[in-house]
Amino acid sequence: MANREIKLDAIAEASALFGRNFREARQAAGLSQQAVHAETGLAQSFISDVERGKSTISLDNAAYLANCVRVPLWKLLED
């Protein structure tokens, strides 16, 4: 059980880190969440949840978001 909790904590931390970094990259690119929605098809509410660390994100969707802001995916996972 403790191992599962550690893994869930690591996933939550990685999701929060991605969200923070994505928000910074989106703002630096001069894009609104609505503009990201228009380009990716991802719901604006989902984008908001990801940025606030309230939602996990699949690798595919993370790649879509990274491409949208023209930043390599690995950079959005860097601490």
TrEMBL record:
Name of the protein described by the UniProt record: HTH cro/C1-type domain-containing protein
Pfam families in the cross-refs: HTH_3 (PF01381)
Recorded GO MF terms: DNA binding
InterPro entries assigned to the protein according to its UniProt record, in alphabetical order: Cro/C1-type_HTH, Lambda_DNA-bd_dom_sf
SUPFAM superfamilies: lambda repressor-like DNA-binding domains
Keywords: Plasmid
Domain HTH cro/C1-type: 22-76
